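Please check this record.
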Amino acid sequence: MLEQLVTVFVTFLVVIDPIGVAPMFSALTRGGSDHYRRRMALKGTLIATLICLFFVFTGDALLRFLGISLAAFRVSGGILLFLLAIDMVFARPSGLRSATVREQEEAQYKDDISVFPLAFPLLAGPGTLTTILLTTSSISSAKHPLLFLAVLGVLLAVLLLTLLTL
């Protein structure tokens, strides 16, 4: 069980990428007061946490409602995570993990960047949501309640770590 939790922690740490999000957050809030930056960091992280929790508890039902099998989602999610990993290995910016120049320009004129682009797609983006669905689909809260709670705790710990880096 400890090995699984370490694997889940490292996976969430790589996909959410608190250290990589920090410079983007800094660029998006450039020129803002310390109070504004703290408020955006807290609000954005809380919204990302709510999005993640929504997917933890309803992701499986959402897939069933949309008629997507878990096997198909695993394949497509695996491809998405593989492409993200290739971009990380070759240090190429990907549309999955970075704020575009247009988003950064738009953020300079927006009073509130907490929902877009901070909470989604930077913190709770496609890679994060795919990872959540793939991780939680393999464990059931009814069959493995302790493991499910531990995975939930790991996710919340990584999001807290993200808040602390912003």
Summary: The first helix runs from residue 2 to 16. Residues 2-165 form one domain.
